[in-house]
Every structure is written in C-alpha cells, then in structure tokens.
Specification:
- The protein is an all-alpha fold and 50 residues long.
- It contains two helices and no strands.
Length: 50
C-alpha cells in the first residue's frame, strides 16, 4: 500500500457538495473518490502511472 499524505485544497462550496454526494452514491470515502478521480484525469493526460 502506498503511504498517504494529507493536503488541503480550496474549492467552491457547490463543487464540494457535488463531490461528497457522488462519493456517497458510489459507496466510497471522500478521499478514495477524489483519489480515483484525480488518477483517472492524470492517467488520461499522461498515460498510465509508472
């Protein structure tokens, strides 16, 4: 398992609400949902993670 690091980001409140609801709908934690979303975006731009 990869070590996790916490960091803060500032997002518009409506976006945070949407992300929280989406994570709940997927049955995922907020952290796992955001990790998955960011990984998908970065992989689509850069190719698979090395």
């Amino acid at each position: 398992m990869v070590e996790k690091t916490q960091f803060n980001v500032y997002l518009p409140a409506p976006l945070v609400k949407r992300v929280k609801h989406a994570a709940i709908e997927e049955g995922m934690s907020l952290s796992a949902y955001v990790e998955q979303a960011l990984t998908q975006v970065l992989n689509s731009k850069e190719g698979p993670e090395k």
